[in-house]
From TrEMBL:
Function per UniProt: SASP are bound to spore DNA. They are double-stranded DNA-binding proteins that cause DNA to change to an a-like conformation. They protect the DNA backbone from chemical and enzymatic cleavage and are thus involved in dormant spore's high resistance to UV light.
Residue ranges of coiled coil: none
Organism lineage: Bacteria, Bacillati, Bacillota, Bacilli, Bacillales
The protein, known as: Spore protein
Molecular function per GO: double-stranded DNA binding
Entries under Pfam families matching the protein: SASP
Length: 75
């Protein structure tokens, strides 16, 4: 598998979400002080770091969803 390729078989319902999730990944990593490899290969990163990035992304996505749902019900 080459650099930047993913083994994930998940398909995104909204193809444009890939770019938004990628941007979120870099923002979260920067906030945590974690350097994402330029070549896209995560094999040399500590599992703790990749897990921290994923966990924070999930928290952020849940917050966004909660805010959107709250907005729907207050209108």
């Amino acid at each position: 598998m080459g650099a930047g390729q993913s083994r994930s078989s998940n398909t995104l319902v909204v193809p444009q979400a890939s770019q938004a999730l990628d941007q979120l990944k870099y923002e979260v990593a920067q906030e945590l002080g974690i350097q994402i490899p330029q070549d896209g290969y995560y094999g040399f990163m500590a599992t703790r770091d990749t897990g921290a990035i994923g966990g924070h992304i999930t928290r952020r996505l849940v917050q966004i969803a909660e805010q959107q749902l709250a907005g729907k019900f207050t209108r």
